[in-house]
Each structure stands twice: as C-alpha cells, then as structure tokens.
Amino acid sequence: MLKVLKIIVLITLVSTFNANGQISKEGGKEKIKTKRKKKKKYKLPKIDLTHWKVTTPAGDGKKPKEVAPPEIFNYATNKDLIPYMYNDSVRGALVFYAYPSKATTLNTKYSRSELREQMVSGSNTKNWTFKEGGRMKGKLAIDEISRDKKGKYHKTIIMQIHGRLTNEQRDLIGEDDNNAPPILKIYWKDGKIRVKTKVLKNLNASETELLHEDAWGDDEGFTFKEKVGFKKFTLEVKVSKGKMVIVLNNNEFKVYENVHMEKWGIFENYFKAGNYFQTRDKGAFAKVRYYNLEVTH
C-alpha cells in the first residue's frame, strides 16, 4: 500500500513539472526551470498635446469638429475623435485619418484630421512672428493612402505654417475673420516630400496691402530628392527673422531667405501637423502616422 502511494505522488509531481516547467540537473542539484509568459508591449507616441487642438472631418456639414485642451487629452476614449485620431500601440504612433467629408474649414473644399498649435493651451489668440521664431520637428510616415482613377496616389499636406491677422489688422482691412494665407505647405506627393510657399506679387506693396490674401501668390514649389514612400522619416521646420529652413531626414535642406520671407514678418503664425487630405474623390482616404512631434519657440 505504501509503494502504491509513493508511485501516485511521483506521477503527480512529474505531471506538475511537465505542465509548468522542466527539471534540470546542474552539479548534482536539481533546478526547476519555469516558463514565463511574455508580457505584451504597448508603445505610445511621444507627443504632448498640451499646446494643440485638432480639427477632424466630422461635423454638421457647416463646419468641422474641433477638440482643444483639456478634452483632447482624452482622445483615446473620446467618441468624436476615435475614428480620426487614435493610437497605433504596436508602432507607437498617433494616427490621423481623413476622407472627403462635408465638414470643411473656411476658404477650403478639403477635409482634414490635423493639429493646430496653441501657444496658450485652449486659445487661438496668442501666436508668433518670424522675428520671434519657432521650430517644429516630427517623425512620421504615411500609413495608407488611396489612389485616383489613373492609379496615382492621392496627396496630403502633412505640415504647415499658417498666417493669422491680429484683430487690429483684421479691422484695418475690413475682414470678418483673422484668416491669413499659409506661408508653408509640406506635401506627401507620389512618395516624395514637396514644399510650397507664398511669394508677394508686388514687392512695392504697402504694409496695409500686404495684409490682403490676394497680395500673395504661390511659388513654383520644391521637391526633395529622397523618396520616402511609406517609410518613417523626419521633417524639421526652423523659422527666424526673414528666414525659413526645411530639413528632411537631417540630410537634405531647403532654405528660404529672401524678400518674401522678410515681408511675411508682418503676420502672426502658428504651426500645423497631421493629415490635410487634398482630394474630393469618392471613396478616397489617407492615414498618417506621427511617432513624435515637438515645437519650441
């Protein structure tokens, strides 16, 4: 009877070790190797949203949905934002999703899922001039983007510097809002990074005339040599008095230092980053991943 009990105990021990680990002998001593479950790793983007608000394609058809601090801090659970701004916890990125919707901002026909800088959290009134300077740097990638009928990828704007009229300037020229042109638009187009800026049509225009949007035209644009495709890349924008520098992957540089930059000093500005989708094609869409984004002044 005692032998039978010993056999049962031995079988039980062997079964337990087979299920939970292995027995190994080292130096005459028995060691138990247990199998440890691997913990899933979740990555988060390195983006502080304290000084950003977001505009999305959602809305009532009259204007898009905007979310500013402090509500934007809860974007991961905000029902208004989840479809358009959400975490990719595998890659550690913040994804901006956009498609052609009825909700567009003033003076444009395109929809966006895009961050707008707010120097004072929750307010649009405090902005910066070229003389005061600023720097924005981000690491990002195109996640997905649709193609047109000819099979070419659609394009999207991934970074901007937008001008803004002060209240005094607005009243001086009789405008009903503070909107001014964007001095910088950076596109993802056909897998490459393309830059567009504004140029003054009449170099002899007065300071009052400079404030009108129709005083400014588009330059010919510049395309960086490197093809980023769907890979991660870094973009940096540096602004100082009369000068703007765009840097791709710390390798290629485009410098704007001319009379147009000097004249632009009359405006206030703010940075933008995200996915400003440039098509109204039915069924089109784009997703842009931002791994990190930082701004300094």
Secondary structure elements and pairings:
Layout: H1 2-20, E1 21-26, E2 29-34, E3 46-47, E4 52-59, E5 64-67, E6 85-88, E7 93-98, E8 112-117, E9 134-145, E10 156-164, H2 167-172, E11 179-189, E12 192-200, H3 207-210, E13 216-218, E14 222-227, E15 233-240, E16 243-248, E17 252-256, H4 259-264, E18 268-277, E19 286-296
Parallel strand pairs: 3-19
Antiparallel strand pairs: 1-2, 4-5, 4-8, 6-7, 7-19, 8-18, 9-15, 9-19, 10-11, 10-18, 11-12, 12-13, 12-14, 15-16, 16-17
Poorly predicted ranges: 1-29
Strand composition percent: 35-45%
Rg from Cα: 27 Å
Proportion of helical residues: 10-25%
CATH architecture of the largest domain, please? Sandwich
Helix run count? 4
Shape: globular
Kindly report the CATH topology of the largest domain.
Jelly Rolls
What's this entry about, in short?
The protein has four helices and 19 strands.
Description:
This protein has 297 residues and is mainly β. The longest helix has 19 residues. The protein starts with a helix and ends with a strand.
Key structural traits:
297 residues, mainly beta, nine-stranded antiparallel sheet, eight-stranded mixed sheet, 12% helix, globular, disordered N terminus
